[in-house]
Amino acid sequence: MINSSNRTISQELLRIPVIVAALGYMVDMYDLFLFSIVRVPSLKSLNVAGEDILKDGIMLLNLQMAGLLIGGIVWGILGDKRGRLSVLFGSILIYSLANIGNGFVTSVGAYAVLRFVAGFGLAGELGAGITLVTEVLPKKIRGYGATLVATMGVFGALLAFTISYLFAWRASYFIGGGLGLLLLVLRMRVFESGIFVELKEKNVKRGNIGMLFTSKTRFIKYLTSIIIGMPIWLVMGVIITFSPEFGKAIGIATPVDAGKAVLFAFMGQVAGNIVSGSLSQYFNNRKKVVFLFMLFSAAFVITLFLAPISSITMFYVMCGCLGFSCGYWTLFITIAAELFGSNLRATVATTVPNFVRATVIPLTALFTLLKGYTGTITSILIVALITYILAVVALIYLEETFKKDLNYVED
Fold this sequence. Notes:
Elements: H1 9-13, H2 16-45, H3 52-81, H4 84-102, H5 108-122, H6 125-136, H7 142-166, H8 169-186, H9 194-200, H10 211-214, H11 216-227, H12 230-240, H13 243-249, H14 258-283, H15 287-306, H16 312-325, H17 329-339, H18 345-358, H19 360-374, H20 376-396
């Protein structure tokens, strides 16, 4: 057996838990963004037309996010009480079956129920995976592990785009479910985190979500770790998902293809993930990198909606730029995991990204409310302004975690 101190970075990153966590996030992102890609054709095949496509699309998206929110709490608590592996097995089984079910829907109502169930299942994947990766890797290369997981996740979205163009929307859901079930078999070889194994032997409370709210310090850390991720889901969950409507609003003559918008956004995010993870390692600092990417994101949003963009090609280029600016997604989840002790780490790492995803609900609600008074472009810019101000303020108060030792518990 190779001693951990003698392993190279490549050997550490190619360990089974890291690879399986990365593949799990790939399947997670496949499902999550397949809906964004097939939203219009799937709803049209269910006899939805006109303005109802946007209305029902927002409803389905919000139900998916509600499932993520509830599932994040359930899976996070289970991850600290029962172990990281129990979540990785349970979550992928549920969302794989829900994915297959999505391929059989014949009504918007059934579609809505299954998007909620899929969201519930998806909620456990990333947080448990990141928790496992941060606990099995040496602290000096945790950022590289997060980058690998994030990059594989983005390839999942690119795979969803490819599959959706090769197959009908129902078959695309079936394929996603099948990939999840195959990964379930691979996970039989994964071992539990050593930190969690040690934790089980200690007489401490595990997965007690109430502990996040009984301490002012813990609550502020938890809240700020959520808020810094909001700009990512403003871009990916709202602007990219509803890119056909936004393209029309800014005067693009050619109809925007949501699938291509997702493709370019995630091609950009692949690059962003690599750059943000590498910069984090280079500077030995996570906060500086997150702030830099927030600035990029705000600048690209302003450019998209205020610059005279009339070419469909330029629109897709901007989607790529927006995707790049969202490349700190897994970096911010790594920060959340590093902020808390091992008896709350899975709870935090699982709930934080899903609370961020669930911010799509208030963001789309505020956008819809303002849209009736100020129009599409002004309303999304107001929502963006609020989002970025909150995120920057939260980042200022956040603790730097790059060199933090993770083998401790919350009292």
